[in-house]
Amino acid sequence: MRIIAIIAMLVFVAGSAVAAERKPIEEVDADALASDTQATPAGAGDKHASLTWWIPHEFWQSVLARDPSVSAADKKAILDALEPVSLLAVVQADISPLGAFHFYGKDEVQSTMVVTFDDANSRSQRLSPMQSVGADLAVLLEVLKPLLGAALGNMGANMHFYVFDDRAPGAGRQLDPYEPVRLSIQLRKRNGDLMTARVELPINALFVPRLCSDGREAHVTWNYCPWTGERL
Question: What is the residue range of the signal peptide feature (predicted)?
């Protein structure tokens, strides 16, 4: 699984995915979706390692849609347990002069973590992790930990999961990966330094790529092609 930082938005990036076509979930590349929702906090420096990964429900749909080894009944049970929530995975570690990683505990990370999102109307709202989760979801989270350890080594094994209610008051979702929203995750190092990771929605991997006139793919949030200057 690739770990990449969020790239700064280009001059021609502006905002709306109205004209973009959504991919059928079974055609969504789960690795690309994971890369689009991972971010390395700015300001970490060379003596600190950290990563955030916002995991929407669509990630699990994509993974399970391509896995014939899981029965339809099991897929439904997993997706039902995950449907009302989104997850945030965070790992933090200070790096010693000799290269040893000193990882942060879950409560330590959460004690200073601030998660906010700005909606399409530029209104900022704070999100707080759920204090308790259902038994089925708790079991799934316990399964994820060793899987990440196998895939990402110590960074994965020391990654902590925070669960957020995905339901907006009234109707809809608080964080819809198809809508223009900016998610910010502020973390604090033990020395007091602040770091901020940002994930820009809508998520590019969920949409059929639009092509510029020169044949290159355009990001879902672009209104203009940065190479040709043409409106998309």
Answer: 1-19
Tell whether 34 is covered by a domain: yes
Phi, psi for 156 (deg, rounded to 5): -70, -40
pLDDT given at position 126: 92
| Burial state string for 41-57 with b = 16 or more CB within 10 A and e = fewer than 16 | beebeeebbbbbbbbbb
Q: In the prediction, which pLDDT does 96 show?
A: 94
Low-confidence ranges of the chain (pLDDT < 70): 1-19, 120, 149
12 located within any domain: no
Question: Is 164 strand, coil or helix?
Answer: strand
pLDDT at 48: 94
| pTM of the entire predicted model | 0.84
Q: What is the DSSP letter of 175?
A: S
Task: Identify the CA nearest to 61 among candidates 109, 25, 104, 115.
Answer: 25
**pLDDT at position 120:** 66
How many separate domains does the chain show? 1
Distance CA 219, CA 232 (A): 10
Closest CA to 109 of 151, 62, 159: 159
For 79, the domain range is 25-218
Task: Supply φ then ψ for residue 16, to 5 degrees.
Answer: -135, 145
Q: Is residue 104 part of a domain?
A: yes
HSE (CB half, 13 Å, CA atoms) of 226? 12
Which residues have C-beta within 8 Å of that of residue 154, sequence separation ≥ 6?
Answer: 101, 103
Instruction: Tell me how crowded residue 144 is: count the other CB atoms within 10 A of its CB.
Output: 15
DSSP state of 172: S
Amino acid (one-letter) located at 111? S
